[in-house]
């Protein structure tokens, strides 16, 4: 034991916490010390039911013995070895398992350590591919308003969240954005995919008219998670795919949230019936037990980049920890669990119950919209006048005190539980949330 009490660390000063209100947190800290199954436990032993799978990432639930043991075993065999001009078997094995799971045609896997790195890697591969096939003028990247692709300069620039950019000045220069698809006037309280908004995909056609053949790729989340659960309207992704195909543009999906069972299928591409050319992954890939991300591409993209380069290194990109042995072990064990326990099937089976429970909050005070798809739900509240975000933040704090972890973004409560969730957990999450919404105005 070190001297630091598990319930009250002596010193909160050194850790500059990410995406946090450091000043408020350090005054009234909320600590999690242990996790098992559907729950976290505070240092004092109080249970907090996990309504968010950590940060949309512990899809198989917490503390899975199979994953822990795989990591321990690998750590004892080999802690680290480079994957630059060297290999270790477990990284190749992990890539093969990922490629087995990704949609047909997305067969080559590049490893990263996070969703942000996956986004930047996908954008760089898209640019390298266009150049390799003789389209070096294609330097432009298209994102979407309210898109989140992590915090690297590529993902941040292509992402569409002003608040994440304004502190940092200049972004990548050759970037443009599609409008977001959120249309509460026509789609509020829709269950599943909204009816209205397919025409918003035609804005890509307008960008093609504007930028000509300088567009390399379009990157979107199949369902936007971090900006409050924005489900694509019916036909929207189909139309984006058509416009990309007709104009030599690559379609990139950011499946960091929607991958690994979250939408009731292995990937969002399958549930939504539209396959991209490049797909990013992270989070559920290792059940978040060791950081790891990945980018899957078609053989055509790989072959074009690899075969059109001079002898030697073909893609000048990679991370010290690409295919890290411990992460590879965690990924292999996680993907095995995913199949053995049919996590997508479990998500699908409970989705109707989840959906009804989410929409049961429709008449709660201040609720202006509810959205859901797969095992995701977003409950949007009217903001307090002049104080946006504070109402949802107070609801988050009350739910935590009452034993349920929810996530908030602006005045939207976003839920994404582990896929092993059962009906009593669903009842508890929405019951606690309902009480908090009724109590806090
Ligand atoms: N892309 C999407 C769609 C995400 O939701 C996230 C994180 O929430 C990221 C990228 C960034 O992932 P990370 O925080 O692992 O860098």
From TrEMBL:
One Pfam assignment: Aminotran_3
InterPro entries the UniProt entry points to: Aminotrans_3, Aminotrans_3_PPA_site, PyrdxlP-dep_Trfase, PyrdxlP-dep_Trfase_major, PyrdxlP-dep_Trfase_small
UniProtKB keywords: Aminotransferase, Pyridoxal phosphate, Transferase
GO MF entries: transaminase activity
Cofactor(s) in the UniProt record: pyridoxal 5'-phosphate
Gene3D superfamilies noted in UniProt: Aspartate Aminotransferase, domain 1 (3.90.1150.10), Type I PLP-dependent aspartate aminotransferase-like (Major domain) (3.40.640.10)
Protein family per UniProt: Belongs to the class-III pyridoxal-phosphate-dependent aminotransferase family.
Annotated protein name in UniProt: Aspartate aminotransferase family protein
Species of provenance: Roseomonas populi
Phylogenetic lineage: Bacteria, Pseudomonadati, Pseudomonadota, Alphaproteobacteria, Acetobacterales
């Amino acid at each position: 034991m070190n001297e630091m009490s598990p319930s009250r660390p002596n010193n909160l000063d050194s850790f500059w916490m990410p995406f946090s209100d450091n000043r408020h947190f350090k005054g009234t800290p909320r600590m999690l010390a242990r996790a098992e199954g559907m729950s976290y436990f505070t240092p004092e032993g109080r249970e907090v039911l996990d309504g968010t799978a950590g940060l949309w990432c512990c899809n198989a639930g917490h503390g899975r013995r199979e994953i822990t043991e795989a990591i321990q075993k690998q750590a004892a065999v080999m802690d680290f070895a480079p994957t630059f001009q060297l290999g270790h078997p477990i990284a190749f094995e992990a890539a093969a398992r990922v490629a087995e799971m990704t949609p047909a045609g997305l067969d080559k896997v590049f490893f990263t350590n996070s969703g942000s790195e996956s986004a930047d890697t996908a954008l760089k591969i898209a640019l390298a591919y266009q150049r390799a096939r003789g389209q070096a003028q294609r330097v432009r990247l298209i994102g979407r308003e309210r898109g989140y692709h992590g915090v690297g300069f590529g993902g941040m620039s292509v992402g569409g969240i002003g608040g994440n950019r304004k502190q940092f000045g200049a972004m990548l220069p050759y970037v443009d954005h599609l409008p977001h698809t959120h249309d509460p006037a026509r789609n509020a309280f829709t269950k599943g995919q909204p009816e209205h908004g397919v025409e918003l995909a035609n804005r890509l056609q307008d960008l093609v008219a504007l930028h000509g053949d300088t567009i390399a790729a379009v990157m979107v989340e199949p369902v936007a998670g971090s900006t409050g659960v924005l489900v694509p309207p019916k036909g929207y992704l189909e139309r984006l795919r058509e416009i990309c195909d007709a104009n030599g543009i690559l379609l990139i999906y950011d499946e960091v949230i929607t991958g690994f069972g979250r939408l009731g299928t292995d990937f969002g591409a399958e549930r939504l019936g539209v396959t991209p050319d490049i797909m990013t992954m992270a989070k559920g890939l290792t059940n978040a037990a060791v950081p790891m991300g990945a980018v899957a591409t078609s053989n055509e993209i790989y072959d074009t980049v690899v075969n059109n380069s001079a002898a030697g290194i073909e893609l000048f990109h990679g991370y010290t920890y690409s295919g890290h042995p411990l992460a590879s072990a965690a990924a292999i064990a996680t993907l095995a669990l995913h199949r053995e326990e049919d996590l997508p099937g479990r998500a699908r089976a409970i989705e109707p119950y989840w959906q009804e429970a989410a929409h049961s909050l429709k008449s709660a005070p201040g609720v202006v919209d509810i959205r859901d798809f797969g095992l995701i739900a977003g409950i949007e509240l009217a903001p307090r006048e002049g104080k946006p975000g504070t109402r949802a933040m107070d609801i988050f704090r009350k739910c935590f005190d009452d034993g349920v972890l929810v996530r908030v973004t602006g005045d939207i409560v976003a839920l994404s539980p582990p896929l092993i969730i059962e009906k009593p957990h669903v009842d508890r999450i929405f019951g606690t949330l309902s009480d908090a919404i009724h109590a806090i105005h």
